Amino acid sequence: xxxxxxxxxxxxxxxxxxxxxxxxxxxxxxxxxxxxxxxxxxxxxxxxxxxxxxxxxxxxxxxxxxxxxxxxxxxxxxxxxxxxxxxxxxxxxxxxxxxxxxxxxxxxxxxxxxxxxxxxxxxxxxxxxxxxxx
Length: 134
Fold this sequence. Notes:
Elements: H1 2-18, H2 23-35, E1 39-46, E2 53-61, H3 68-82, E3 90-94, E4 101-109, H4 120-130
Antiparallel strand pairs: 1-2, 2-4, 3-4
Helix pairs in contact: 2-3
């Protein structure tokens, strides 16, 4: 019976430790975006001193727009190996059928809607009030 309790407590402790971002997981994110043509417009850690999530605001211009699919694929693979609470990426495309600018926000780890900093939602409301249409 004691072994079952121990295994259960080990699972709980592993889940507790997994909620925090590790230095290795952040280095993995940084290395991936070093290869990407995306411009990082903003990066926000949530969770205080022991961060539990990272929200990135990215932009792609001109021919770099299709690369956002590769970054989404990395984001999905990252969550498969590190866990977290993945929310769908938020994407704004300016210009159709040929995008001039693509803006995207990706959340890594545990980022809750109330913890996000404006970012793309503010941009979307600005575009809506200014009457810009792609």
